[in-house]
From TrEMBL:
Domain ABM: from-to ranges: 2-90
Signal peptide stretch: none
Gene3D superfamilies (alphabetical): 3.30.70.100
Protein name as it appears in the record: Heme-degrading monooxygenase HmoA
Family annotation (InterPro entries): ABM_dom (IPR007138), Dimeric_a/b-barrel (IPR011008), Heme-degrading_MO (IPR050404)
Record-level Gene Ontology MF annotations: monooxygenase activity
Organism: Sutcliffiella tianshenii
Keywords for this protein: Monooxygenase, Oxidoreductase
Length: 101
């Protein structure tokens, strides 16, 4: 199993707007081979800190997704988001190999 976290900070007053974007996301990742689970996490104390949690069968499945056309299409749309403050956010990506369950 392979876990990927993508953590980013938005102004707290825009957190609900970003959460709504994720509620209405395309869902293309769910169709990717080896994909297991998606969660959007909100820090309880720092409401502007959000983390995308994705679980994959393998690292290779994740890398195949990242190199695919659907991934590129989704991330190109993010760059065109009307709110340039949100569009310019660069997340911190952390990857984990699951070594015990």
């Amino acid at each position: 199993m392979y876990i990927v976290h993508s953590t980013f900070k938005v102004p707290p007053e825009k957190a609900d707007e970003v959460i709504a974007i994720y509620h209405n996301r395309s869902g293309l990742v769910e169709k990717a081979e080896g994909f297991q689970r998606f969660l959007l996490l909100q820090n309880e104390k720092k409401t502007g800190e959000l983390t995308v949690f994705m679980e994959w069968d393998t690292k290779e499945a994740f890398l195949t997704w990242v190199q695919g056309e659907d991934y590129k299409r989704i991330h190109e749309l993010e760059k065109k988001y009307p709110d340039q403050q949100l569009a310019s956010i660069i997340p911190t990506i952390t990857r984990y190999k699951v070594v015990a369950t």
